[in-house]
Amino acid sequence: MANTMRWRYGDTNPVTLPVADGVAVEIGDLIYLNSGVGAPASAMPDEGSPTLNQQTFQDSFVGVAMQASPSDEETTIRIATSGVFEFDCDSVTWELGSPASTQIDGSGVQLYDQRVVSAPSLSAAIGRCAKQASVASTRVLIEVVSSVMRGGPQDRE
Questions:
Q1: Which residues fall within 8 angstroms of residue 139, CB to CB, at 6 or more apart?
Q2: For residue 148, what pLDDT band results from cuts at 50, 70 and 90?
Q3: Can you say whether residue 35 is alpha, beta or left, with left for phi > 0 and alpha for psi between -120 and 50 degrees?
Q4: 155 within domain boundaries
Q5: Are 92 and 75 in contact (CB under 8 A)?
Q6: Are 58 and 145 a contacting pair, CB within 8 Å?
Q7: pTM here?
Q8: What is the domain-level CATH number for residue 122?
Q9: Which of 34, 45, 76, 100 can bridge 116 by disulfide, Cβ–Cβ 3.0-4.6 Å?
Q10: Is 92 a member of any domain?
């Protein structure tokens, strides 16, 4: 996916984090903490089930990339730990406050870097719907909350 500035409004409370050599990050990617460096959602290894993949990502969710990093150099990027961002999603309706998680591909293994879906549980959520969509829409406003920096949704069942 191309660099897409997804931020729409709200304080971003940015942090900076290095990105490892060999890992490409694009503006708008959902970023998690992986051994002290930032990585896009798609770089996370399979945990065995779609729900476990989403929960594991949520546990180490840092935020949304505000800068890009090419794969051929080791750089430090700025990451928003909060704010309202517009993400792509499947054509569905959204209720205000509904928890959102990273979307997973059809195989149930690969997380998408810049797509969200209704979270199966609060323990998989990276944020909540910030604007109700009563008519099915392929974009949604999500107020993200970093689990690493801000203690985002953490409920465990």
A1: 86, 87, 88, 89
A2: very high
A3: left
A4: no
A5: no
A6: no
A7: 0.93
A8: 2.40.300
A9: 100
A10: yes
